[in-house]
Amino acid sequence: MQERAARTRQAVLEAAAEEFAERGYEGASLQRVACRAETSIGALTFHFRNKTALAEEVRLTGRARFDRSLAGLAPAADPLRELRVLIGTLARLAREDRFVRAVRRLEAGPPDSAPPLAETWMPVLRAVLDRAHGARWLRPGVAPEEAEAMLAHLAEGVMAAPGTPRSAAGAVWDSVWDVVLHGLAADRGDGPVRDDREPSRADS
After folding, report:
1. Domains of the chain (ranges plus CATH)?
2. I need a labelling partner for 163 at 20 to 30 A (CA). Which of 24, 91, 134, 178 fits?
3. Residues 14-18: contacts with CB within 8 Å, 24+ apart?
């Protein structure tokens, strides 16, 4: 009985993540969530008393998955490669993880008491840029704060982009990153970083 209840709860949570990701908090319907989860409203409210409680659990789950993915990124000797991996990971999570998509959509409406995801990934971006600047990987005249502003806009853009096939998204991302590197990288006698791998020590 407990195992079946746990399966039902997880099915409801996954269905709710899809619903909130697609419709936001105001547009989400508990009836549609129950239908997606192939269960009853009674079973849903047994686990989550109302839409607010369900949204909060989806938010907590999404943030935990997001934080775990960022914490698992492997450091790189080349900080510009590390920046590429970071922003590529943000794009992948926003495109492929229903819970992360839901968190981003929930950020746009009530309840809005939780800090945005940017408060997690922006300090990581800033730290890598500071390291790149200190090691003289940035082109002379490129200030870390200017690079941070540009990369933050880039990250938000790729996270907000509509879903595309992974191969197509990867090709576009490679081309964009070549342009970014041309503007950021100091002349070290190396070509653009072209590495689609996203090394991680944790599952997302």
Report:
1. 2-184 (1.10.357.10)
2. 178
3. 14/98, 16/48, 16/54, 16/55, 16/57, 16/58, 16/102, 17/58, 17/61, 17/62, 17/98, 17/99, 17/101, 17/102, 18/98, 18/102
